[in-house]
């Protein structure tokens, strides 16, 4: 159970916000608590937590679920748009970044606050004005905005407070840079791929026991679920490719490396150096540790298997860990004896009306084949069209609501005896 109690020594700790795909907040909170962080608070689409700066960097480097990790710069309440300016100008921005650095602001409104404020761009603009005016008054010039590749990326998050004309407002500084879900092993795009952190969340939601259970993705597409499962099995940090490139090639992928806070604090830099060294050694060692185990990827489309092969190569995981096969999942036999987990993310049907009939048949035949040929497996289907479950004549033993972007999805579980 997570302890939400405050204690006086923790009051000094900074607050961070880790964002994630909706539906995965509790898994993310568990990951954060595994870093001995006890002060956490669940939000829609993420988790607020208090911790040392170094522990927050640990979350950034080791969370399989987080999309980004942000440091909280300010929190206040507003009633009107102009309150953002009045509060924004009180923040000491010159301590947070330099006039030569570019910045951008994204605004995120929850449902009730978007009814009230409508235009998030205007809110970003108001905060931007307060920053520009403060720099001008202190430094006689202002930093430039770059909406594409800014050095400093700010998030303005506004949430309605129950039954009042007041809105909780947070300003966060993104520590991540590119999204943490971009692990770096996917170079060629294949149709409807899952984001890597959503794929990791799906694997973590299955009851897969990596030490003694087979893992199969029966419609593997570009292989995201397979590669995330392998990283979990091998206890390899999700940011391992970035950690290896940082250590061996001095490539600096994370935004915090350019922030005044990091650059001005030798203690944080030393702690980060130790942390990176630890994670680098773990990554390098564990990448070659896999023994006698296989993960199976099936797909009907040879192009999908080609891209999976390419992604496995990019991932630097041992090729011998995977076995790929071109086969129709509605006829496939289980590639190894159970117990095991067979997961799949069937096509969504881009052109819904045309494809619905085909998908109904696919789900039905897939369910029939599971019954016949996959004894001792736990089967999972991740779908953006939950109604298609009706075409499977197996009893659902668990259903989990998750979001793929804005699409409400379900992960269904079936026990096969
Ligand atoms: C939505 S994509 C899977 C995406 C994958 N999870 C990823 O992250 O890349 C669906 C995949 O199902 C495959 N597929 C469709 N019908 C199939 C069938 N009968 N048997 C096996 N694979 C099938 C498609 O070729 C496609 O690669």
Topology:
Layout (H helix, E strand, L loop, with lengths): L14 E5 L5 H9 L5 E5 L2 E5 L2 H10 L5 E11 L3 H7 L4 H4 L6 E7 L1 H7 L2 H20 L12 E9 L6 E8 L21 H10 L8 E4 L6 H10 L6 H10 L10 H4 L2 H22 L7 E5 L2 H14 L6 E5 L13 E5 L7 H22 L3 E7 L12 E9 L2 E9 L2
Parallel strand pairs: 5-6, 8-9, 8-11, 9-10, 11-12
Antiparallel strand pairs: 1-3, 1-4, 2-3, 4-7, 6-7, 12-14, 13-14
Helix pairs in contact: 2-11, 3-6, 7-8, 9-11
Poorly predicted runs:
1-10
Give the SSE string: EHEEHEHHEHHEEHEHHHHEHEEHEEE
Major beta-sheet overview: 7 strands, mixed
Question: Which second-level CATH architecture of the largest domain applies?
Answer: 2-Layer Sandwich
Structure keywords:
single chain; 417 residues; alpha/beta; VC0802-like; Rossmann fold; 7-stranded mixed sheet; 13 helices; disordered N terminus; binds S-adenosylmethionine
């Amino acid at each position: 159970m997570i302890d939400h109690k405050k204690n006086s020594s923790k009051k000094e700790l900074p607050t961070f916000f880790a964002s994630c795909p909706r539906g995965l907040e509790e898994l993310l909170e568990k990951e954060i608590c595994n870093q001995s962080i006890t002060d956490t608070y669940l939000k829609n689409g993420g988790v607020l937590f208090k911790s040392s700066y170094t522990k927050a960097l640990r979350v950034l480097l080791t969370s399989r679920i987080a999309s980004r990790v942000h440091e909280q710069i300010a929190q206040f309440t507003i009633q009107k748009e102009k309150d953002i300016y009045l509060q924004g100008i009180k923040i000491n921005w010159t301590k947070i970044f330099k006039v030569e650095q570019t910045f951008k602001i994204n605004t995120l409104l929850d449902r009730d606050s978007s009814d009230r404020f409508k235009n998030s761009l205007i809110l970003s603009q108001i905060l931007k004005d307060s920053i520009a005016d403060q720099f001008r008054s202190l430094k006689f010039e202002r930093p430039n905005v770059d909406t594409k590749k800014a050095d400093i990326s700010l998030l303005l998050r506004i949430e309605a407070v129950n039954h009042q004309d007041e809105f909780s407002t947070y300003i966060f500084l993104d520590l991540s840079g590119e999204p943490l879900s971009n692990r770096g092993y996917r170079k060629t795009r294949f149709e409807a791929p899952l984001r890597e952190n959503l794929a990791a969340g799906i694997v973590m939601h299955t009851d897969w026991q990596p030490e003694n259970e087979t893992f199969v993705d029966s419609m593997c597409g570009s292989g995201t679920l397979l590669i995330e499962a392998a990283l979990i099995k091998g206890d390899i940090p999700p940011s391992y490719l970035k950690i290896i490139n940082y250590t061996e090639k001095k490539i600096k992928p994370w935004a915090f490396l350019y922030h005044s806070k990091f650059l001005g604090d030798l203690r944080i830099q030393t702690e980060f150096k130790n942390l990176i060294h630890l994670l680098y050694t773990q990554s390098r060692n564990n990448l070659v540790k896999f023994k006698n185990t296989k993960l199976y990827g099936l797909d009907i489309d040879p192009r999908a298997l080609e891209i999976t092969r390419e992604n496995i190569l990019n991932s630097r995981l041992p090729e011998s860990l995977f076995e790929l096969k071109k086969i129709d999942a509605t006829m496939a036999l289980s590639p190894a004896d159970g117990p095991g987990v067979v997961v799949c993310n069937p096509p969504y049907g881009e052109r819904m009306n045309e494809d619905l009939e085909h998908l109904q048949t696919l789900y039905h035949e897939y369910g029939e084949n599971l019954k016949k040929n996959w004894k001792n497996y736990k089967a999972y289907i991740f779908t953006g069209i939950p109604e298609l479950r009706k075409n499977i004549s197996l009893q659902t033993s668990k259903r989990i609501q998750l979001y793929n972007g804005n699409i409400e999805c379900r992960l269904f579980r079936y026990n096969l005896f």
